[in-house]
Amino acid sequence: MDKDLLKKTMTEVAGLIKDKKVSPVEVTQNLLDYIDESNKKTNAYISVTAESALDSARQAEKEISAGNYKGVFHGVPLALKDNIYFKNEVTTMASKIHKDFVSEEDATVTERLRDAGAVFTGKLNMHEYAWGIDNNNPHFGAVHNPWNPDRVPGGSSGGSGAAVASHSSYTTLGTDTAGSIRIPSSACGLVGLKPTHGRVSKFGVFPLAWTLDHVGPMAKSVADAAAMLATIAGFDPRDPTCANVPVGDYTSGLNGQVKGLKIGINEEYFFKNVDGPVEKLIRERIADLEKQGATVKKVSIPSLRNAEWVELATSLSEASAIHHHDMQTRPEDFGADIRFLFELGELFTAVDYLQAQQARRQLKAEFDAALQEVDVLIAPTLPFIPPNIGDDKVNINGKQMDFIENCIRFTGPSNLTGLPAMTVPAGLGDGMPVGLQIIGRAFDEARVLNVGKAVEDMKPMGDKSPVLAP
Amino acid sequence: MSLPIKDVLAAKGIKPSAEHLTKLEAKWKEFEALKGSLEGAHLDDYDISLKNIAGGDHHG
């Protein structure tokens, strides 16, 4: 097994494939050999499709040898979250109810990656139906955080986070309804980007809450996330919420330059009830950005005080509508935790839901006004260090607080507004990764990525790596 | 007068366990307190922003 090859980023391994220093078959076989070993510790994969991966790798090798190189994903092996459809293959949503579901079509994001020559190694574990954040799945088992196997990887894309952090997938996609890309990316020390709502098609991705759902990259580096976004972004008429807005250039402008950048800080919401080690790291990184020529301005977004109720009323209502029939006819087939959430979602009235949408519009207007004053907002991604598997409380400055509500407190607002939001590693607190969140203007992912690159270039993780790594 | 949670759910064909009912009642009280933040939010001017697009999902 070539451990150095496993630890490459997606764009690094793509460069080796392009230069014919390594073949897609060698890269894929090396990764498959490692998955056999690593999955026993992380439980990141639900299924491994070794045979079809090797077939795809052989096909990529032929195409590249014949001079038909398609780009950075050509011949690169990766796995996707198991709520993203693959044509004629099982997609389980990590559930009992959908354990044998076979889609007749690829999701649009699957199709775009397939067309780009990606090699699919399997499907990744997740919180059941993406409705939770600890990834302690009753049907497929708990996923373990590669930085500390006793800790949660975050969720709902916890398998995605653990797979990339343990180097058992070169990169991947997550889905994000209240933070499910950014939470596990933060907990696992990765870059995770929730694009602008409508930037990436959701066609063929099982919904959690239609108006809040997003699909986006989870990656070892900002460059990898940019390359993934460039491949999957763009209008798709099959997704009713997809926006017909030109796709930006996410890769060529990535230089990490922040001179003249205006950073907004909202103290009242995004720096309230934050665990000490997390707050310290985020403020240090902001100070580092200032040293590089950025300026910091405090901004006010008063309606953030409503954000938690609006996120809960919207997500719980929409999710319960999607699963209403199964809750009436076969509730025992859901895990107890999500069954409880579906029961809770049935309690909101139509008036509650519509008032939440009014408050959401107000929140959007205030975020837009703030982002006229500054280029980006910076905040912690999570207000705490990830807890142990099985804990339903988190420690914030010595107080035991609700895990779920605090998990989505800083990520949920960007699902409500639809604005792009990315987490990048800001350093280690208590030996665990801490994520810094960058929120940008609508469709301004290029700037968000570039600020992330500036943070990445500070090398805040030093030479530390997860314990479950090659 | 509001109906007990058990009755609201029963009317929708959903039967939570006794353990869940206790938890649901506690959580719903927390949500009502959270919703209290909407008081004074002056929402009258805010359209709900759902779009009714004639002829399909997208313009053009």
Number of separate helices of chain A: 17
Please tell me how large the radius of gyration of chain A is: 21 Å
Strand coverage percent of chain A = 15-25%
Helix content of chain A: 25-40%
- Strands of chain B, total number: 0
Q: Give the proportion of residues in helices of chain B.
A: 40-55%
Largest sheet, spatial ordering of strands of chain A:
6-8-7-14-15-11-9-10
Which structural category fits the helices and strands of chain B? mainly alpha
Low-confidence stretches of chain B: none
Report the sheet with the most strands of chain A, covering strand number, pairing sense and barrel closure: 8 strands, mixed
Task: Tell me the Rg of chain B in angstroms.
Answer: 18 Å
Estimate the mean pLDDT confidence of chain B.
Answer: 87
**End-to-end separation of chain B:** 49 Å
Give the helix tally of chain B: 2
Question: Structural class of the secondary elements of chain A?
Answer: alpha+beta
Explain this structure.
The complex is a heterodimer of chains A (470) and B (60). Chain A is α+β, with helices and mostly antiparallel strands and 470 residues long. Chain A has helices at residues 3-6, 10-18, 24-42, 50-65, 108-115, 158-165, 182-188, 222-232, 267-270, 276-291, 307-322, 324-329, 336-345, 350-373, 403-407, 412-417, 445-457; strands at residues 45-48, 77-81, 119-124, 136-137, 141-142, 171-176, 191-194, 214-219, 262-265, 295-298, 376-380, 393-396, 399-402, 421-429, 432-440. In chain A, a hairpin with a 2-residue loop joins strand 12 and strand 13. In chain A, helix 6 (158-165) runs parallel beside helix 7 (182-188) and helix 8 runs antiparallel to helix 17 (445-457). Chain A is globular. The N and C termini of chain A lie close together (9 Å). The mean pLDDT of chain A is 97. Chain B has a domain at 5-45. Chain B has helices at 5-11, 18-35. The model of chain B has no long low-confidence stretch (mean pLDDT 87).
